[in-house]
Known about the structure:
The protein has helices at 2-20, 33-42, 71-94, 102-125, 130-144, 151-172, 179-208, 213-216, 221-241, 248-266, 321-324, 348-351, and strands at 49-55, 61-66. It has 386 residues and is mainly alpha-helical. A two-stranded antiparallel ribbon has the order 1-2. Strand 1 (49-55) and strand 2 (61-66) form a beta hairpin. Mean pLDDT is 79; it is low at 274-299, 311-334 and 357-386.
Amino acid sequence: MFKDWMAHLCGLCLTLRDEHGHRARLVTNYDGLLVSVLTEAQLAASAPRRKAGACALRGFKGADVVSAQAEGARLAAAVSLLLAAGKTRDHIADGDGPYARRPVAAAASRVADRWDAAGGRTGEVLGFDAAVLRDAVARQAVLERTPGLTLLELLEPTETAVAAAFAHTAVLAGRPGNAEPLAEAGRFFGRLAHLLDAVEDLPEDHAAGAFNPLTATDTPLREARRLCDASLHGLRLALADAEFENRTLVTALLEREVRKAVDRTFQGHPYAVFDEPSASDRGGLPVLPVVGQYPPGYYPPPGQVPPGYKPPRRRPGCGPELCLAGALVGCTCGLWRPEWSEYHESSCSDRCACTRCDGCGDGCSNCGECCNCCGDGGCCDCGCDC
């Protein structure tokens, strides 16, 4: 699975290079490759491999990668370019960081225009309507300036953008019946991505006075976690309704790794506080302090990040593309683990997903034992459906 994952990642990078030039490779990201993975999972013949030469990011080794002729890789490139262009323009409009300087903003604007045009051209060749993504990015900026909206209303553009990209993989694979369940899966994944990004960025956004959908809607952290768990469940059900030739990598990335990302994001969050008398009523979930909700001392004053707080480590190359998500998907089965993985310094048996107790997902809700999907039995022997 790791070899296949790398084939899609490197394939996306090289497709961007071959079709749009070396600078376009800046938008390569781990979330965009999901589009390529979904296309191949539905039709294996849609993602031919080719031999790529040595690359510094692979330790100067060659590899078999998805060809730039693969429609899934080209769609992933188009989506990444369009969303990167939209987010760059958003940074320019807000004057974020270096974008507040006119020379930087002017240069970034020209780059964004080239990325947008390139993504639109590729999307048109593949029959993908780039206007859906452009509209989603523009609508997001408008919604963030509109008071009184609910959290789900603020997440809607992200859900729509990802749903459109996921659904079009069914068109490329010649499986129109998959379009609806994959669109549904895309909506849940987009919601998850945006929520996790908001939770991770909360201390920095609060300190800088920047917009964050959680504080803008006074959403407690326990409610954000509830929405994430519900979205995870919906994502699994939607993927179960789709037909795949091989769903192994899809399951690993969109179910197991996303679940781990949710746990990793909420665990030990600096804004998590517990009200012991009512903790059982909330299931022990943390609460997000919002302005005026708690007495002084429960949350930091504006402009001050909690002492000792270290932002979650983001994966290299993870940009704003595909729903502005942070760390969501990573490598799956295999001994190599990146630094952000909780198993980075673990034993060989723990680093390999197939030999860990959590290799297939959650424990059985009835008997509490771990499901062993890698074993001959397929799951725990409790007579229930895990």
